[in-house]
Amino acid sequence: MKSIPRKNSEELDLHALRVFDTLFRERSLTRAAEVLNTQQPALSKTLARLRRYFDDALFVRVSLHMEPTAKALQLEEPVRVLLEGMRQLGNERARFNAAESERTFNVFTTDAGVIVLLPEIIERLISEAPGVRLRAAQVGLSDLHAALEAGEIDLAIGEFPQLVRGIRRQKLFSGRHMSILRKDHPRLGVDPERSEFVAEQHIFITVSGTGHPHQVAERLLEEQLPPSNVIAHVPSFTAAAILAKHTDAVATMPGPIAVVLASDLDMQFVSTPIKLPAFEISQYWHERFDRDPGNQWLRMIFNAQFGSGKKQQGHGS
Asked: Considering 8, 183, 218, 224, which has the largest number of Cβ atoms within 10 A of its Cβ?
């Protein structure tokens, strides 16, 4: 691994290296300024200082992006390692005091995750960490890895098989899909036969934000049901449940959210008589923040509430 040159070392500071690291990841002065919460002219001045120090352009404009030069590619690893070392040194002396913290954590999860997980977590925060805030942040699935790496998202909760490189994962629980319908349905009981289930009208929840497990389940359902029996496609689990409540239609969704919505909307949930794959819900974070005290605390809260083999209705083990 090549090292950062020692000449003019007094001209380099951690802020300059953070600017380099952020530009390398964002490939845009505008986005880098937003991430660092600074003005673009100030960022440009720091970039000019870095260019003089390394005697290299470092980043050149290609179309709408700032692409790294060969020198910048060479520097990326030593800069990242140095910054990570400094962050860990800070963490060694820092302690997260949940009772006094006013930190806002950004959590990425699906529609189902917001409804099933966050109420219990928020209730616990009000009791144990009244100044801490949670923000259900939304990014495209293709941008989720970069957002975790940059620290823009603290935790992702769900099933995201595309998150691999540099990502840590902890299983919380597993489960299966269930179906939700209005009480006193004229034809379906609590344990419907497959033929009865297929003959009913169905509502599909089809948006990318529903998460990978539901998309797989819905494709399998679509193969089993007559197209004429799918009466609506809606963008959220809540919308599907409300529509089912006011019709005789059936909405199939992950078991934990079926249980919550059935309770809140005075409906019933039943076993889905078509075999659908089980899903596994985990929490994901980037290895850069594995030892961050606040991130560790937040992971502990989610795991204590939903993981560690706890059994809840609609969940597996």
From this structure: 218
